Structure formats: C-alpha cells, structure tokens
Amino acid sequence: MSALDTAPSSAATTPEDRVNELVDRLLAENDPKTTSVVDFLGAQFDLGLAWVHFPESNGGLGLSPKLQKVVTERLVQAHAPQPYGRNPIGYGMGAPTVVTRGTEAQRKRYLRPLFTGEEVWCQLFSEPGAGSDVAGLATRAIRDGDEWIVNGQKVWTTLAHLARWGMLIARTDPETVKHKGMTYFVVDMHAPGVEVKPLYQITGEAEFNEVFFTDVRIPDSERLGDIGEGWHVSLTTLMNERVSIGGQIQPRGGGFIGEAVKIWKDKAHTDPALKDDLMKLWVRAEVLRLTNIRAQQMRSVGTPGPEGSIGKAAAADFNKDVSAFCVTLLGAEGMLKPDGYPMERPKHTMLWNNAQQAFLRMRANSIEGGTTEIMKNILGERVLGLPGDVRVDKELPWSKVPRS
Ligand SMILES: Cc1cc2nc3c(=O)[nH]c(=O)nc-3n(C[C@H](O)[C@H](O)[C@H](O)COP(=O)(O)OP(=O)(O)OC[C@H]3O[C@@H](n4cnc5c(N)ncnc54)[C@H](O)[C@@H]3O)c2cc1C
C-alpha cells in the first residue's frame, strides 16, 4: 500500500476486516510507545481511522459509525493516544459540524489539526442574555467586503484560553426573526480584538471563560454555511454536543460507578442500606451504558436525532447522584478536597482526580450543553410529540424582542 492508500486488500472481505487491517497497519508503522502523540494521531487520521464514518480524505472511510468502536477498542488495548481529551469540543462538536456543513477546503483546513489536538476548538454560543434561548443572542457581525466585523460578548466558553478556533454564531440580520438572522463562523481566537478572561468554578479551576470581541475581522471564507443559516448549522453542533457530553460509553462497571465500587471496598463498607443504594446506581450505570450503545449504533454521519437528549439528561442526573454517593461513602474525608482549590486554568474539561472534585464539578452537568429542563422539553416535543413550549417572540423581528 502507498502512504495514503486505504483501499482494502483482497483478504479484507468485510468492512470490519478492512478496519482491522488498517488498525494493524497503524500500529505496525507507528509504535505507540515511541511515536509522538501528534504523529500517531496524524497517522490515524490519514488512514481514515479518525472517524470511520467521515468521507475518505477527511479522516474517514465512509463506513458505518458502528465500526469506530472496533478502532477505539483496539487502540485502547494497544495503549495508543486518544484524541477526545486533547480537544473535546473540537472532536465532539467541531468536527461533525465542519464535515456536515463545511466546504471541502474548510474540511481540509480544519479537520486534521483538530484531530491531532494541535488546534484546540471552543464553542462561542452562550451570552449573558442568551443561554437556553441561544437564538436570542446579540453578538453582531457586519459585512465589510470579503470580511465580517464582529462585536459582542460570549460567556461560559470552555477551554477558550487554549483554543485556536472558535465556533461562533453571530447576528447578521437583526430585522428578521431571531432564528433566521444568525450566521455561523469559525473565528481565529488569536485574531486582534479577541479577549479571553477566566471564570473560576466551584472546584477552583477556570475551565471556562468570558470572551469579548471588539472589531474582530473574520474572512468570509471562514463562514460555515450560508448567511442567515446559522441556526441550522448550530443545531448540528448542539445535537452533537449532547451526544458528546452524555453519550460516552464506558466499559461495563467502569467510569464513575467503578470508582464507587472501589471506595466501597477500600472503606470496607457493609451497611446493607448503602449496598442497596450502590446496586441501584450500578443498574442505572448499566442502563445508561446500553442506551448510549444503542444510540451510537443508530447514528449516521452528521446530526444525531433528538434522542441524544436522553443520554444527556440521564448522564447528568446519574453523575450528580453517583458522585454524591461516593462522598457519602468517604465519610468525613469526603468533606475535604485532597488537592485543595488551586485557582488555575486547566488543559482539560470534565475530568476528575478524586471523588470530592467530581462531586463539585458534576453539579454543572445538568446545565452545560443545555439544561436538563431543556432536554426534557426537546424529548417532550420531538420524541413524544407533546405540545410545544410557549414561544411568544417567535414571529417578531429580533430587534423588536424586549431584552434585559
Ligand atoms: C460548566 C459549563 C460549561 C459551559 N461551556 C459552554 C461553552 O463552552 N460554550 C457555550 O456557548 N456555553 C457553555 N455553557 C453555557 C451553557 O450552555 C448554558 O449555561 C446553558 O445553556 C443554560 O443557559 P443559561 O446559563 O443562560 O441559563 P438560562 O437559560 O437563563 O436558564 C435558567 C434556568 O431556567 C430554565 N429554563 C430556561 N428556559 C426554559 C424553558 N424554555 N423551559 C423550562 N425551563 C427553562 C433552565 O433550565 C435553568 O434552570 C457552559 C455552562 C457550564 C455550566
């Protein structure tokens, strides 16, 4: 095979054989012990094993997304580097948006360094006056020749302090209804006029930030989708966000429920009432795991359906409950965060070093990526077909909608 030849050999009779053959080749040519993380992930992308369901030459093979599990399992077994933690927002949300809505030139420009983690991405949707109702946002983008000039403020922007690129929705036509007057851009976070300020969380860490835009110039070539189509493009990001946050598939008994079992054993607990609680949580962890496996298998390239909200809402509740249970198991020790409260800007999001930190961090799970109330609205309307939420400003031009 040539350097970029990912065609199946005659021995590969099924798509799964083809994937396995390419994983064999990746590992044979790039020993995870001696290859740098960036080189390894770059080789994975070039072989089409980044997202197997993406098109060939965009880090994929045009195969079923089910087969990504084969790649991940084999690479975890081989102790190969994993892409998600290096660039969670880019990997989980930026990539599916670019591949679905971007031009071929944009896919070529953004996807590879996104996957290797050389270029971190952030999501610039929420504003002080627009969170759940993100379509009410006020950041303005005004056309100036081949460029757009952006002014406004975003908030809660996770990892903006590390990001090279930001997914930005801005108002380009205030005189039309709110969902139609927005446009989606990829903004260079190093451009003049972009200012990123930390916001510290209950854990002491500032995973997220405020971002201010003052006369920031974005080339029109970095617009994603048509002018005024920002809402539709952002739905691709939002639907993938839910799956990215709530759809993580842990091994059976792994993840946070594994931590709870470990603490149970370490502390030699025997109380039958606590054991009952532990078993109920174990069952919930397993139901969530199986639900997410089913959702992943039904997924195709692009925008996942509203059922992504099931995993998102269930994972938020579960994470909050299981981390609170771990703190209970720890007894008095649970009241003290062993690593203190260092005020720092981390290189990661949603990770935890100990149960106490997880307990604090997981309070946010039912807010970030859309609140649990909003997930329930989506499930009610789009899955169960219940009557819609009251939306009094739906038909008004954005400029006429009262706002604080
Ligand atoms: C840890 C963390 C990380 C985040 N990272 C990012 C990021 O990277 N990028 C980004 O753009 N945003 C990010 N966010 C912002 C997040 O998306 C918003 O906080 C969220 O969408 C809620 O918006 P809000 O905070 O403005 O609350 P509001 O929308 O003001 O909601 C307040 C309360 O009212 C309820 N509510 C609102 N509308 C309805 C309704 N129609 N029906 C029922 N109840 C309703 C909500 O559920 C909530 O309880 C992050 C948030 C957190 C906590």
Quaternary state of the chains: single chain
Q: Helicity, in percent?
A: 25-40%
Number of strands: 7
Largest sheet, order of strands side by side? Answer: 2-3-7-6
Provide the succession of SSEs: HHHHHEEEEEEEHHHHHH
* Beta-strand proportion: 5-15%
**Structural class category:** alpha+beta
* Low-confidence parts: none
Q: What is the overall pLDDT average?
A: 92
Overall form: globular
> Distance between termini?
62 Å
Instruction: Please report the number of helical segments.
Output: 11
In words, what does this structure look like?
There is one protein chain. It contains eleven helices and seven strands. The longest helix is centred in the C-terminal third of the chain and has 27 residues, at 272-298. The chain is an alpha+beta fold and 404 residues long. The chain has helices at 15-29, 37-46, 68-77, 88-101, 104-116, 230-246, 255-266, 272-298, 308-330, 355-361, 372-383, and strands at residues 121-124, 140-144, 147-154, 165-171, 182-188, 194-199, 208-219. It starts with 14 loop residues before the first helix and ends in a 21-residue tail after the last helix. A four-stranded antiparallel β-sheet has the order 2-3-7-6, with no helix packed on it. β2 and β3 form a beta hairpin. It is globular. It binds flavin-adenine dinucleotide. Flavin-adenine dinucleotide binds next to β1 and α11.
